[in-house]
Write a structure and sequence with these properties.
- By secondary structure, this protein is α/β, with parallel strands linked by helices.
- The chain folds into three domains: 2-12 and 195-292, Cobalt-precorrin-4 Transmethylase, domain 1; 14-99, Rossmann fold (3-Layer(aba) Sandwich); 102-189, 4-hydroxy-3-methylbut-2-enyl diphosphate reductase, catalytic domain (Cobalt-precorrin-4 Transmethylase, domain 1).
- It contains eleven helices and 13 strands.
- It has helices at residues 14-34, 48-56, 82-91, 101-115, 129-136, 148-153, 170-183, 195-208, 223-235, 250-253, 269-282; strands at residues 2-6, 38-41, 59-62, 72-75, 94-97, 119-123, 144-145, 159-164, 186-189, 213-217, 239-242, 258-263, 288-292.
- Helix 3 links the parallel strand 4 and strand 5 (94-97).
- It is flat, with a radius of gyration of 21 Å.
Length: 294
């Protein structure tokens, strides 16, 4: 028998489910006569297929506050900068906040650390919208550090506080903690990594070690999905990262008997289901079992 084994934690995390639910409710209200345009400042989540479905319901993605004329604005799950929020308030639009509560907590920790006189180390991708939003809440004049080299080169800093992008790996956070402890007299660590991220990474790498091929599903613009693919590939060289079932090459699965499937935090269940159906199609004629990883 050939086996498809699914990671139990694959797919939408709490923050993404919440954001999608808020967007769906907002769109439904408009369609029922609520009136006015609905915009999302940046993609609500990092999954092109899910964003496309929202656009069909009337939620238009815009790149900048200047592109918003009025109506309702949904704040994406990754959050927006403090400057962007102030600009929206000034425009007088209706702000619907779908920021993940864990991201909000990271923003609050960064702000509190800076107010208490700590230099702030932000562990994450400096170009990611979540990291930009976190940094924006740090008080002006506070030293902000985003790389290991900046920690090593820092001068005239006695104490530093650390926060992390919610989808960072724990190992990466600990690298920064170790470097900071070697450099600064006082280090305060706020572990702002989402528990769902840690669980997903641990479960997926464990699964990758038990199967012949590993499939990681999610947007190519999703940092947590890319990281998931990286750490699974360290365990299983036959790991592939794809967005949809249509991208799955048959030769990845047709010569193996066990395939693992996991997905990033922004990946809808229907994409996971479609990939399972695609594998079944490739294995047509064989006995197939589908189960969750224990």
């Amino acid at each position: 028998m050939k086996r498809i084994i699914l990671a139990r934690s694959a797919g939408f995390c709490f923050g993404v489910k919440r954001a999608m639910s808020i967007a769906d409710e907002t769109a439904a209200g408009r369609n029922e006569g609520g009136g006015g345009p609905i915009a999302s400042l940046g993609p609500l989540i990092h999954n092109p297929q899910a964003v496309e479905e929202l656009e069909k319901k009337g939620v238009r993605v815009v790149g900048e506050v200047a592109d918003i004329a009025g109506g309702k604005v949904i704040v994406r799950s990754h959050g927006i900068t403090r400057t962007e929020h102030e600009a929206l308030v000034a425009k007088g639009v209706t702000i619907i906040d779908a920021t993940c509560p864990f991201v909000t907590k990271a923003q609050e920790h960064a702000q509190a650390l800076s107010r208490q006189g700590y230099a702030v180390i932000v562990v994450g991708d400096a170009d990611h919208p979540e990291v930009k939003s976190i940094i924006s809440y740090i008080e002006p004049g506070t030293p902000v550090i985003t790389t290991l080299r900046e920690i090593r080169d820092a001068t005239k800093i006695r104490k530093a506080g650390i926060v992390a992008q919610t989808t960072q790996s724990f190992d990466n956070l600990m690298q920064f903690v170790g470097e900071a402890l070697r450099k600064f007299t006082e280090v305060r660590v706020c572990n702002t990594i989402c528990n769902a991220t840690i669980l997903r990474q641990r479960e997926s790498t464990a699964l990758a070690g038990t199967v012949e091929a590993m499939i990681v599903l999610g947007g190519y613009n999703s940092a947590n999905t890319r990281r998931l693919a990286e750490i699974c590939r360290e365990i299983n060289r036959k790991t592939i990262h794809i967005e949809t079932a249509a991208e799955l090459p048959a030769d990845i699965v047709d010569r193996v008997r066990t395939v693992g499937v996991t997905a990033g935090a922004s990946t809808p269940q229907w994409i996971v289901d479609a990939v399972v159906a695609r594998i079944r199609d490739v294995w047509r004629g064989d006995r197939i079992g589908v189960s969750y990883y224990k």
